[in-house]
């Protein structure tokens, strides 16, 4: 019943860890952390598979790596847009 809530909490933690690793977590809010964690989890598991420890159905190592990739791509896109204006 509360599986979705657990997924949001784990997604927020994954997003926060990825933001801290990339030094871009200070500008991200909780919603952005949750989105980065959930989308990064999907991306990481699609690219790297489901291995290692898992919480809420998310393999942690591929999820964190996927979130890092996502944050770097989004930062690069918004960084380029910000410089061209």
Offer a quick outline of the entry:
The chain has 85 residues and is mainly alpha-helical. The chain contains three helices and two strands, in the order ααββα. Strand 1 and strand 2 form a beta hairpin.
Termini separation comes to 46 Å
* Largest sheet, strands/sense/barrel: 2 strands, antiparallel
- Structural class comes to mainly alpha
Question: Number of helical runs?
Answer: 3
Shape label: globular
Sequence of strands across the biggest β-sheet: 1-2
The level of helicity is over 70%
Element order, helices and strands? HHEEH
Q: Uncertain spans, ≥5 residues at pLDDT below 50?
A: 80-85
From the alpha carbons, calculate the radius of gyration and give it in angstroms: 13 Å
Mean of pLDDT:
82
| Number of E-state strands | 2
- Work out the strand percent: under 5%
């Amino acid at each position: 019943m509360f599986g979705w809530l657990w997924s949001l909490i784990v997604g927020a933690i994954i997003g926060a860890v990825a933001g801290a690793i990339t030094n871009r977590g200070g500008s991200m809010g909780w919603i952005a952390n949750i989105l980065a964690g959930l989308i990064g989890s999907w991306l990481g598991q699609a690219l790297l598979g489901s291995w290692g420890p898992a919480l809420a159905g998310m393999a942690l190592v591929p999820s964190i790596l996927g979130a890092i990739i996502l944050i770097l791509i989004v930062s690069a896109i918004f960084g380029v847009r910000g410089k061209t204006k």
